[in-house]
Amino acid sequence: MNNKINKKWIIPFAVVIVLCALAALTFSACNNGSRGGLVADALTSYDIVADFNEDERTLTCFQDVQWVNDGAAVSELPLHLYANAFREGAHFPAVAEKYRSAAYYDGDSYGGIAITALTVEGEASDFVIGGRDNDILTVKIPHTAEGEAVNFSIAYKVTLAKCVARLGVNRSSVNLANFYPIIAARENGEFVTDPYYNVGDPFFSETADYFITLTVPENNLVASSGEEKRTYTENGRLTVELEAKSMRDFAAVFSPNFKKISDRTDGIDINYYYLGDKDAKPLLKTATDAIRTFNKAFGKYPWSSFDVAETEFLHGGMEFPGMVYVSSAMDGDNLHEVIIHETAHQWWYAAVGSNQVKNAWLDEGFSDFSVALFFKLNGDGERYSEIMGGTLASYSLYMETVKLAPTDMLRSIPEFLTESEYVIISYYKGALLFQSLYEILGEKTFLKSVSAYHAAYAFSVATPSDLIACFQKNVKTDIEPIFDAWISGKVVLM
After folding, report:
1. What's the CA gap between 390 and 181, in Å, rounded?
2. Which of 192, 494, 233 is nearest to 356 (CA)?
3. Helix (H) or strand (E) holding 430
4. Domain boundaries, given as residue ranges, for the chain
5. Which pLDDT band, with edges at 50, 70 and 90, does 241 fall under?
């Protein structure tokens, strides 16, 4: 997600002093993760039929799930109900209080998800909704060992708030993200059931195959993750059948106000869905150039299409596999750079996954640095220096203003004292870490290392130690002290 403040302080360079009083991080080899590099293993699948009622602002859904167990045997599964963060009285509301008036444009409005039926292997089953905020659906399943699969089906209705958030009905379009029950990812053998924190991107999910049938009023255009396989209209309704394979989650935006232009690069269809009369061609070109640049620098984009959708959204943009939101409030250079940032997330989050609650800098810092790197790789070294100079100046100003602010990076979302601190550490300091590696190692070794990281962990989940190992594989000297100085907070920026 892009939720940064604008950078106004620009200096030409940064001097980084690395203090090597080290506490060693645990190393792993830069080898393929369980699905790294290609998707050969059987994947969990979600087959979702969703029908949108415009008058009621509801989605009536039926969802078939085949879960493939790639870990220890279990007899119950937790699924996130992220839509309940929009319900009245939510303990972890999706929108922070300071943003409520901007997000809820028509006054207080609420949403949520109601589970109406559950079957497991064709038999009706009881279920429990709990978690920290009525946000976890627990499904009891037959004892399922590693490598085995279980099938279950859920009927549910989602009510959408009038809200300019990831999920909601806004004045010009409908944003559909995190609306469906999704199985919690496992980490170190345990399911991760963090709530919907309203800072950052509080999501952690594993690669799956999605088959979506979405029905909306026929005057809409639909931007989405995945590939459009079939469309048809009947009785004033448009149905779109979508296939989104090997993706961490699924999202869509639809609007009767959309216009669409397209381009193609490296065998990938690039689509820009836009509102109003903005000059869309340069923005489409930016998205196309970003895909082409990062394809060459990081590794092959893994899907057949990429949608950029302009929509009302509280922050600058939001990433999903195969599709991104960009806010209709953005314009000028900021809009172009948001598109580049969100496009970079197709490599860092969508392909190479990570726990965004625990290690936000892994994808946000990398995507932020990728914006500057985009300009450098396309011959604009001056803009590269301006962006990274502004990043350093903003970081330094914050640290000067907030005396004794902690600077360590291994913190989960709730451990940050403020949203500003989260942004400064995860985005700005994360980007400066990657710039440091780029400047110290040189462009050739840096790109070789990040390409190895992408190849090893695409479609899997990576950790900081995995990233370090991929750099170490391509560097003769010990790279760990550089990472440790940054991550632990020992680095001095001047």
Report:
1. 40
2. 192
3. helix 430-441
4. 16-35+354-493
5. very high
